[in-house]
Fold:
Amino acid sequence: MGRRVAVVGVGMTENKSHWDCSMPALYRLAVTRALADCGLTHKDIQAVSFGQSPEYFEGINHPEKWLAEACGGYLKPVFRIHTGGTVGGSAAIGGYYLVASGMFDVVLAVSGNKLNETASAQIGLGTVYDPIIGRQFNTGAPSAVALQSLRYMSKYGYNEDYGIRAAVQNRQNAMNNPYAQLKIPGYNFEMAKSTPMLCYPLRLADMCPTSDAACAMIFVAEDRVRKITDRPAWVRGTAATAAGVYYADRDWAVPIELRKAAEIAYKQAGIKDPLKELDVVELYNAFSWQELVWYEGIGLCDWGEGGKLFDKGITAMTGSLPSNPSGGTLCANSIGAAAMFRKAEAALQVMGKAGARQVQGAKLSLGHGWGGAIQFHTIMVFGSEK
Amino acid sequence: MDSNQYRVLEGNISVPYRWTPGDIYGRFLGGLKEKKILGFRCPECKKVYAPATDICTACYYGFKPEDQVELPDAGVVKSFTVVRANLWPPKPDPEVVAKAIAPTKLEDHPLLWPPAPPYALVSVKIEGADTEFIHMVKGERNLGKLKVGSKVKAVWAEQREGYLLDLDHFEVA
Structure:
């Protein structure tokens, strides 16, 4: 496990179309908010774990060069980590590793993207597939996840409404999140169900928006934590797994790669029954059905039981284990920052700083990251106690 | 059956994009449109940056509109190279590009295709700035006179749109 490490500061930008600022200014905004959150300055940062989504979305190669000053990284080690949609999670884990290893005491992790500036994110996503077997359909994300969703529905006999209901629950949660993009007053099942079908079984309501955003987290070694804050989020467990690209051999409805990551993180955190022990989870639900699939992936229930768990209301804000109080990736998806938002939201919950979306008394939280139809999963478990 | 082991599958990934300059870069570009070189002075270390940047490197200060200062459109050459050979491949055939997997319009863009030689790439310390502006000197008469320490003055494009090359090139004063 290495040294004990805590998150002491979190900074988020609003998820929206940021035509008002440049990419460097967007990163700096997230970083300055994280520094302000814990009373540190850029001089305190010893190293930067930098994330951004695939080059195609930035229109620039080597974005860590363009953004090094914006991250306060001048004259410091700046390491770029790149794992597609999971990148924000990987950058956060990278920041944690740098401190846990004993090499640095104060490390900034930052990740972001301006997805609205790409001419088409989906054309870009079409280029992430195996160029010899798979690229030819320029699939993008929605139609790949449509395959995952229908597989899940048909395998376990869930009707189309489950996806819609999961989307509505997230959209209603997002009303409490000042950083969410999709905030629709009075959003309900009928409104979601009446949205157009884009690729069966996914309607517009089942999909995430296109966001510009950056997110930053500051990881600090144990002996520095108490001087900085009395409300840290201790890193209790960390895991990342690669799922690869050979989808011919993967059951997208049964993400065993995520289950593997969860088992590793729970073992580190000493969690035996995640459904009972966790107080809040933030899942990378870029599409509605993934809310249910990921419940199963992180072991809240058995395979195929995600919809039944949802039916019980356990994961609603009023339930015993709220999922995505922020509205999740369904209500804000910059890709580059989205997985870090999940980690940062989970950290804020155990710090007790989640504002109107706070789950009262949250002591143990999980933040998840996902990329590609299959690709990578990241998990961080945070605790208010060491 | 042919094993296809040495077969090559051709593809072309084009990357259309739109970059947002934001307020500070945006003001600098707006200045160029009006034939002005604008700098930004850091209130903490007093350093004047031209061309624009969002952030003072040393202070991590984020520039604000009020930090803007107008500078002369002239300066001194600190270093240069005269480019005489075109090492770039020929511009792609638009029909080939159109057959790419993600066909998009590839514009005849100076950012992608450098100007025809000869020209000089120069770093110019604009009067009143503490940084150096990388730009061009063009024309054989100018290139012949160019040396470190040469005083240069901006030559503005006829058609200006708020773009770096609204300042077409520098000429030796």
Q: What stands out?
A: Confidence is low (pLDDT under 50) at residues 100-110 of chain B. The interface with chain A takes residues 9, 11, 13, 15-25, 53-55, 57-58, 60, 62, 101-102, 104 of chain B (CB under 8 Å). The first helix of chain B runs from residue 22 to 33. The first strand of chain B starts at residue 37 and ends at 41.
